[in-house]
Amino acid sequence: MPQFRPPPRDSAASGIIAYSFQESDDGRFALVEFVARDRKAFAAILADARTDIKVFQKGRHTRTQIETEFRKFKRDFDPDSFGLEIGR
Length: 88
Description:
Helices cover 19% and strands 17% of the residues. By secondary structure, the protein is α+β, with helices and mostly antiparallel strands.
């Protein structure tokens, strides 16, 4: 399970309203999409400086950039079968 996922009963309080993930090919990483109504909900994720966490933001990164990076971890990654349909 992804590290920053909200507890099931606390998703509204955390600001994260939805998430989806796929496990990397080696099982060591999660490729995750988080959805929130307010950018503040991502504060902990955006502030995390660890090198094993990479953040992509809608409007800042292209679909190609995200696909390229995700395919380093999941060879057959398909963005059309990933995540939610919000904002696509």
